[in-house]
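Q: Got a minute? One more chain.
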Amino acid sequence: MYAKLSERVRVQEALATATFSTATNGPTFDTQADGNGYRVAALAFTGLLGATATMTIVVQESDDNSVWSDVSGATFNLTNAHTGETLIADVACAGRKRYLRARVTTAANSPSGNAVWIAGDPRTNPVDQPQAVMFQV
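A: Always. Here it is, folded:
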């Protein structure tokens, strides 16, 4: 029995904090990392868009971490004065290709933000948290 959330989910950067002006690929998220086999993942984006800024973010998948395709229904179309709400796209990993990534496909008038992957329901526990400082309170 695991009582710590940190042992049940994995968190990884999906898009570094930036002002976007061109298409940008986020780092790869491996749904099979550490042999855990995550069953669900979510892409959480937060950002700021000015009155005329627009931005499109899609979730993509790949079998080989080389050739990518868009995940149907996993697209954020951000327009006008988006003021920092967190947008979340849930992605069922069962039956999905092994690798996921976030991709900014269009950006106009200097939108900014960042995103993280949150994966859970691993087949094994506890989950390894690379590059994380862990503490309990």
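A: The chain has one domain: 10-120.
Q: Perfect, thanks.
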